[in-house]
Fold:
Amino acid sequence: MASSEERVTYNPCQGFGCHEHCILEVHSRDGKIVRTQRAPLPSPAPGPRICSKGIMSAKIPYTHDRLLKPLKRIGERGSGQWEEISWDQAFEEIGAKLNAITEQYGSHATILNTFWCGVPGCDRSTNFDLAMRFLNSFGATRLEGPSIDMSTILATLTDLNGIISNNRYLLNECNDHIIIWASNPIGFTRPGETSHMFMDARERGCKITHISNLFDVTSAKVDHWVPVKSGTDAALALAMAKTIVDENLQNDEALVKRTTAAYLVREDNGRYLHASDVVEGGSPAEYVYVDVDTGEICFAGRHVAKAAVGAIGSSVATDSIGATSGGVATEAEQSEEERLKGYAASDVYGDHTPDLRASVEVNGIACRTVFLLLIDHLEGYTPEFQEGVTGVPAETCRELAREYATVPTTMFIYDGLRYANATQTARAIYLLVYLTGQMGAKGATILPSPLDYYPTTQLNINPLWYPDENIHRADQVPWVDVIDSFSNPDAPQQYKALINPYANPILNWPNKDMWYNQVLPNLDLFVAVDIRMSDTCKYADYVLPETTTYERWEVLPGPNECIIMCEPAIEPVGESRDIAQIFAGLAKATGVGDLFGDKSLEFWAKFKISLPGTSGQYLQAPLTAEEDPEHAGELADVTVERLEKAKFLHLDVAEEQFDNYRGITFDTPSGKVEFYNENFLPLGKAFADFEPALVNDEVAREKYPLQFYPGRHKYFMQSQFTNIPELVSLATATQSGLALNPVEAAARGLKDGDEVEVVNQRGVIKTTLRLREDIAPGIAHMWYSFNEDKYPGSSCPQHLMVSQNTKEVQSAQMGAITTAFAQTMASFGVPRSASFFVENAAPEIIWDALCEVRKAGE
Ligand SMILES: Nc1nc2c(c(=O)[nH]1)N[C@H]1C(S)=C(S)[C@@H](COP(=O)(O)OP(=O)(O)OC[C@H]3O[C@@H](n4cnc5c(=O)[nH]c(N)nc54)[C@H](O)[C@@H]3O)O[C@H]1N2
Ligand SMILES: Nc1nc2c(c(=O)[nH]1)N[C@H]1C(S)=C(S)[C@@H](COP(=O)(O)OP(=O)(O)OC[C@H]3O[C@@H](n4cnc5c(=O)[nH]c(N)nc54)[C@H](O)[C@@H]3O)O[C@H]1N2
Ligand code: SF4
Ligand SMILES: [Mo]
Structure:
């Protein structure tokens, strides 16, 4: 076959949800994809890398369960009986039902689930932008996000007003030590470039320590593995903090400069002392400290030099919303250079040096510094105490603390802290970073959920999100309120319809029974959009087939510091349509077609680059030699024309890798890190503490002594790729059945290959026992990605998990975080529907469940 017939395009990997965000070079011939390989994007070392899923991704358009036509349910929900219908009929019938619901209950009665993990591009995709546009055209209600992957974000919401630093290329700066805490990135969950960066660091002589509850692939690749008992990490982190302050290894200067450690707190009510408490007319916004040399009482104002960028609150720059309908440029944000200058100037102490250890009476009020309070708080968290809790020897804890405090160390934390105490645990880990001054230090920072996020390369998506100036037409709601409304006719809003475009919640979210028993029976209409028949589609009334990433347009800034124009590699398979067509059809059928418009996905994707980015300027990229040999290297605006020719351009990102923690100030009330947060005083949680996780529950353990651990598959991406036979073979050969340590099996008289039942109060799973030395005693490990049909006559792993969206797991701390966050967002003028809320429930309980294993039929 002549090579001229081969077509090459660049498309995001369908498994984009791993956060590696690989772009694939896609080769197709005669309208069919023949292979995918890594794209030669010009980017920092080690350059693009892909994994087995990226290679098998070429099969995604052609799977046996690919949705090819709109489907209408004809049997009971979940019965799998469908009628194929035309798009016209689908839009007409769905439109009529939505209109009837709107007439009776208002447009907010329709819920849109915008959770994005399944869609290539995730929250950066044009798909996501158009979901927001539909939300804002229709005036629907956005479903609040599940508490998944949230612990580090919630910790930073508490201490830093939501600022994260997650540029994965900072791993290239690590030469001394990396601690991977609660994550399995190497060769597993981050199998692309990130794995290579870890291995390259090791080759440079950088030591890697891994702290985890089981010996996983990452443990096997590092220098030092520290096993901890599940859900106990806060005890280890706090005992490390205690060792650091006991041995005076903390960084006093960093504590004073960047945190409120030297500020006085009133002993009577635990609140920060303010200038207004001390002098008549003093400012309630000024904090109080003691000069270490003179003993003078001094005041510090709040100096925030335009705080760190990229707060997770919202992708919306609200100040520009008013201007969007005219397509006018957005207000310029501060440049990177100005921001850093601002940090340097943000000295609130003048000539004074604050005393970290002041204990004084001011105006008759006894006060002590936050640092002294911390020393008291850590009193009980001795290395010996933690040994009893975590199983980590006290001496190992001390050594780790000393090493951490004296060797520049990057802390890599990801999402393994999936327990009810996750927020406090993540705060305890962050505390170590503040104490030692490693926050934002070169080669020594903290990277939560690192990815390729460049705040300076964001496109302005407001004009896509908001069809007009009414930014408050839509709303947002948590599941618990939806469930409540079903049994309460007086609830302020009834919810009747659900549209689910990009996720597979009936499989992935830990509350299957809530769907079957409470949600589905109360919905008048359930519409799912997907590329294949998922568990969620199975229960829908209408299933709408979408194009895959290979059949549609996209423009993505970010991956590998590039901006990529993703053109369709092939024609849509079957009658699948792209999301612009799908939402436009729904909008038209519901009378909001004029607002939503009828532009194509290609138009919207290109439209994003035709506007200045959020920095107020067009994105810039150096001219390539192919574009202009004479001026190669010179900066020029990224335009549609340039991208059409080049397909991808390396964006002009600062030479110095960006670390959002490299500055000094934060947008907190004090302008500093508040690891002592007075909002949480009523809960006794002003500091990070160790609270037992649900798996540590002693009473329940009597009946169910094992941790039920339904983990992710190496060869799948949650439920994705479970329809690729080659990957299914690999997965079933290596990760199937129930994996148990031989010690636990012997104690139950079980042997390898036995048919067993995994049980708890919520369900019984029938499966086969596999003995594995690498699974720690105490853990019953399963994998969870397959459709429920894979478990005939049995519960699915998700049944045994703690239900996430119930009142029982709502937590006071989450309530306080959510309330504070809502206030902040409102004060910025961000509409509720655009804020990134997560449900007010214990943050991560995916592995926080217990079970017992017994021989089948006993
Ligand atoms: N037991 C257990 N449960 C877990 C986890 C765990 O480790 N253990 N992990 C949790 C985590 S971290 C997450 S993020 C969630 C993930 O939860 P989900 O976001 O539900 O994840 P996916 O299974 O990736 O599902 C996405 C859906 O999108 C569909 N899809 C893929 N590409 C496209 C597309 O281009 N267009 C459309 N319309 N649809 C598409 C897929 O077919 C699939 O049905 O699961 C959570 N659940
Ligand atoms: N192959 C593959 N890759 C994926 C995904 C997938 O489904 N498959 N999903 C993607 C998504 S959405 C996400 S959010 C990420 C998640 O990526 P990670 O956070 O890296 O992985 P998880 O599987 O959530 O976490 C598993 C690890 O957490 C650690 N762990 C568990 N409990 C504890 C504990 O109590 N203490 C400590 N210290 N460690 C503990 C163990 O090392 C375990 O191997 O993976 C992404 N990548
Ligand atoms: S690491 Fe693998 S699954 Fe993840 S985006 Fe890259 S190729 Fe896809
Ligand atoms: Mo995730």
Notes: Residues 87-105 form the longest helix (19 residues). The radius of gyration is 27 Å. The first strand starts at residue 6 and ends at 12.
